[in-house]
Amino acid sequence: MGYKVKWVEENLGVSRKALRNFEAKGLMPKNNGEYRDYSDADIDRIWTIRVLQGMGYTLTEIIKMANDENFDFDSSIQIKVKELEEKKEKVDKHLGYAKTIKATGRFPSRPKNMGSIKFDEFYEKSLNEWNIDNTEEDKVFLEIADKYLNLSPEEFNKSDLGKVFNLLEKLQNYPDLLVEAYLFPREIVKRKELGANHPEVQLLVKMMYESKLEIIPEYSEMTLNQFVRFESSSFKSGDVARMNKQNFGEEGCDFIADAIAIFGGYKNYDEVED
């Protein structure tokens, strides 16, 4: 049975141009006629090329395999696995960085000491240090945000997470992470009438800051300014802010962001952003 070019295109995902390229590079027998039928052996060869390409082998590498009777595929595949693992590690790092920007709503700005630090150095440092995938706690929180941020307030209150939050308000002993992520902000919002600079409100922000340093080992060296910039933005922009606004309302989040900014020595959140 012969297979037409159209069949190969539709079933193996190989274009006419690619087939001609395979022939030109000696990976396929040349077509001497106007029309071509591909044999089962041809289809097997094309299949093998596609699988190898899918694993990241280049045509040059595939040609070397085809032309070398003593080619050591076992050694080759070990090297390819290592190459793919290195690529995956790099992609995962960039993905975590992108997810951090998406979640926090903060785009990395040019450092003030530009000139003393080159872009590549700054970017590599950012990839390693400002990455939501670096801590299990952040990854879990992001998964929760992705699941619940598109719910309306009514839907959220009826959801499993909403029921947990409602229950926590009635308990006296809370899991540490939920205290830091939910109950401190809730208590701050309850004191909105006092003003963001009120000692009671500022004490709660201080407790939130110290709690984060204590609970999450990776944050133990976080500076006050880093806390203020990162935490305040989590109530203003990005995916986490969208979930916070469902919990505390738009005005509540504005109040929390201002309270955090004041704790860091700013007049309000707008000054943090300047």
List the helices and strands and how they pair.
Layout: H1 5-12, H2 16-24, H3 40-54, H4 59-67, H5 73-104, H6 119-129, H7 136-148, H8 153-158, H9 160-168, H10 176-190, H11 199-215, H12 224-233, H13 239-248, H14 250-263, H15 269-273
Brief sketch in words of this structure:
This protein has 274 residues and is mostly helical.
How would you describe this structure to a colleague?
With 274 residues, this protein is mostly helical. The chain has 3 domains: 5-67, no CATH class; 74-134, no CATH class; 149-273, no CATH class. The protein is built from 15 helices and no strands. It has helices spanning 5-12, 16-24, 40-54, 59-67, 73-104, 119-129, 136-148, 153-158, 160-168, 176-190, 199-215, 224-233, 239-248, 250-263, 269-273. Helix 10 packs antiparallel against helix 11 (199-215), helix 11 (199-215) crosses helix 14 (250-263) and helix 13 packs across helix 14. The longest helix has 32 residues, at 73-104. It is elongated and about 85 Å long.
In percent, how much strand structure appears in the residues? under 5%
The class by helix and strand makeup works out as mainly alpha
SSE order, one letter for each helix or strand: HHHHHHHHHHHHHHH
Euclidean distance between termini CA atoms:
71 Å
Number of domains: 3
Helix content range: 55-70%
Low-confidence runs (pLDDT<50, min 5 residues)?
167-177
| β-strand number | 0
Report the average pLDDT across residues: 81
Largest sheet data: none
What does the radius of gyration come to?
Answer: 28 Å
Shape: elongated
**Count of helices?**
15
